[in-house]
Amino acid sequence: MKLKYLGTAAAEAIPAIFCECDICKEARKRGGKNIRTRSQAIVDGRLLIDFPPETYMHSILHGVDMTPIKDVIITHSHADHLYPDDIDKRAPVFSHYKCGDDAHFRFYGSAEVGDKIAAVINNERLKESGRFSFIKLSPFIPTNIDRYTVTPLPARHSPVTGPYIYMISDGQKNMLYAHDTGTFFDEVFDYIEKSGIRFDFVSLDCTSGDAKMDNDHHMNLDKCILMSDKLKNIGAADAKTLFCLNHFSHNGGNVLYEEFSEKAGKFGFLTSYDGMETEF
Ligand SMILES: [Zn+2]
Ligand SMILES: [Zn+2]
Ligand SMILES: [Zn+2]
């Protein structure tokens, strides 16, 4: 399997649009891996994860042809992960497909995600086009999507956004995409342990970098270390599992790429950047 990160930031991105903090100023100066757009990823070039405001920009910057993509799983309804205003760009006139069926676009996620999407795809014109559908996923229930088995697990994040983290398997390799979330619920660890799954790749929420935290709806380096140790302790990960830290905020500690990747590397973690592709 391959995972490509198209965007790797929290909601404000780095640099944040109106921000003059030291991180944003330095990120503007350095550019490169310090420029982080809102979170999105793609599995094997065919299964999209999230639909942020930068989806169009990501398709151009990272050479991702969005036209053949049929399935997008949404982690939760925060606008940096789901930007419904661009859904209609897949509708007739805004886009031209030679065969109607090829245009079909399926969104997957929680009921809360579905509500936000329904407000767009249930308007008369989009409904008539037959190009859109939403499939509600329930926590702990595996679903076949394209060639993958996708299992949503409840995330410790803003409950009104219907947050899920996702186990994705192609039958041979397994990954866990954990955004946005704080430390995992006990029942999530129980489910993972009972399923007997071993992850080849794990993407962990590290919004706060190495800063101390007083909330548990995102994570920092210490919490990522705790989560990776716990996954190893229950046999869901081992020394060969790739752990990658992702979804950084300019309000996090030490989050400039060069400094953070060096520090995270000492704990065996990869650090994501926009355009990074990992094969596992
Ligand atoms: Zn986010
Ligand atoms: Zn800033
Ligand atoms: Zn969020």
Number of domains: 1
Might you state the CATH topology name?
Metallo-beta-lactamase, Chain A
N-to-C span: 6 Å
Low-confidence stretches: none
Oligomer: single chain
Largest sheet: 7 strands, mixed
Strand content: 15-25%
Distinct helical segment count: 7
Top-tier CATH class: Alpha Beta
Whole-number mean pLDDT: 96
Question: What global shape is seen?
Answer: globular
* N-to-C SSE string, H for helix and E for strand: EHEEHEEHHEEEEEHEHEHEE
- CATH architecture name: 4-Layer Sandwich
In order across it, which strands form the biggest sheet?
A: 6-5-4-3-2-1-14
As a percent range, the share of helical residues equals 10-25%
Bound molecules: zinc ion
Structural classification: alpha/beta
What does this protein look like?
The protein is an alpha/beta fold and 280 residues long. The protein has a single domain (2-275), classed as 4-Layer Sandwich (Metallo-beta-lactamase, Chain A), CATH 3.60.15.10. The chain is built from seven helices and 14 strands. The strands form two sheets. Strands 6-5-4-3-2-1-14 form a seven-stranded mixed β-sheet. Strands 7-8-9-10-11-12-13 form a seven-stranded mixed β-sheet. The longest helix is centred in the C-terminal third of the chain and has 13 residues, at 221-233. It binds zinc ion (ZN) (3 copies). Residues 76, 78, 157, 180 line the site of one zinc ion. The site of one zinc ion (ZN) has 6 residues, from α1.
Q: What does the secondary structure layout of this molecule look like, with pairings?
A:
Blueprint: E1 2-7, H1 22-30, E2 40-43, E3 47-49, H2 55-61, E4 71-73, E5 105-109, H3 111-121, H4 124-129, E6 132-136, E7 143-145, E8 148-154, E9 164-169, E10 174-178, H5 186-195, E11 201-205, H6 221-233, E12 242-246, H7 257-265, E13 270-271, E14 277-279
Parallel strand pairs: 3-4, 4-5, 5-6, 10-11, 11-12, 12-13
Antiparallel strand pairs: 1-2, 1-14, 2-3, 7-8, 8-9, 9-10
This protein binds zinc ion (3 copies).
